Amino acid sequence: MIRFEHVGLRYGIGPEVLSDIDFTLEPGSFHFLTGPSGAGKTSLMRLMYLGRRPTRGLITMFGQNTNGLAREKFWPLRQRIGVVFQDFRLLNHLSAFDNVALPLRIQGKPEKEVRNNVHELLEWVGLGDHMKALPDTLSGGQQQRVAIARAVITRPRLLLADEPTGNLDDEIGYRLMNLFDQLNRMGTTIVIATHDSQMIERFGHSKLVLDQGRLEVKRSKSSIARQIEGVY
After folding, report:
1. How many CB atoms lie within 10 A of CB 84?
2. Cβ–Cβ under 8 Å, residues 209 and 216
3. Rounded CA gap, 232 and 218, in Å?
4. Distance (Å, rounded) from C-alpha 100 to C-alpha 154?
5. Is 200 exposed, middle or buried (0-12, 13-18, 19+ CB in 10 A)?
6. Region class of 208: left (phi > 0), else alpha (psi between -120 and 50), else beta
7. 126-139, pLDDT tens digit by residue?
8. What is the pLDDT of residue 221?
9. At residue 81, what are phi and psi to the nearest 5 degrees?
10. In the prediction, which pLDDT does 70 show?
11. Residue 31 in contact with residue 207, Cβ under 8 Å?
12. pLDDT score at 225
């Protein structure tokens, strides 16, 4: 799904914020991305959704070397990726329904299919009574749920989420984590950046641990078992 080989990233002429990053995300895997503030989690996420190019090293996505790829050829790759941004990035002139429907409409899905899927998902995340609401009229937690619904509506092959439950109460947060687990069981590869140690412990997935720009991969017992069984 994704392979990083000796990847480094710096902004301008400053020091590297990521150094010698090496890891592979296998199809159908689930990882928590964690580490102290300033460790480089958001920068690593940007590289994974093709928001930035690395300063050095090789990134392969869906079997394709992205380093020399022209920007106009990023679009077919990005269509396979769902992203939940920390700042939501909702379109303020569109309702909650239309924000979530946008990826399906871009893909040219029939409007009946769009309506059914969006209605079902917004009901599931507890926003059935706010489908016509504009983002500015919603709370931060409600906006976050709209952003999550928009990211998962197309059932992407890769889902990247930056602190997706940070503004949510525990009940909604765990409910959305169960949604991510369901997507993962259906084959979506998932990376969730979070500081929530209780959630990491409760769900028990493998961890990508960043510290001072360097990465350590800590596999869960379940992922090791799956690898032994030949799933990976």
Report:
1. 25
2. yes
3. 16
4. 10
5. middle
6. beta
7. 899 999 999 999 98
8. 58
9. -120, 130
10. 86
11. yes
12. 47
Please tell me what DSSP assigns to residue 51: S
In this prediction, residue 151 carries a pLDDT of 92
Q: Where are the domains of the chain?
A: 91-155
- Cβ–Cβ < 8 Å for 149, 121: yes
Residues of the chain falling short of pLDDT 70: 221-232
Question: Can you say whether residue 88 is alpha, beta or left, with left for phi > 0 and alpha for psi between -120 and 50 degrees?
Answer: left
Tokens, residue 29:
């895997």
Q: Sign of dihedral through CA atoms 41, 45, 48, 52?
A: negative
Q: What is the pLDDT of residues 10-24, one digit of tens each?
A: 998 989 999 999 999
Tokens standing for residue 206: 């493998």
- Tell me if 102 sits within 8 A of 94, measured CB to CB: yes
* Count of Cβ atoms closer than 10 Å to residue 77 Cβ: 17
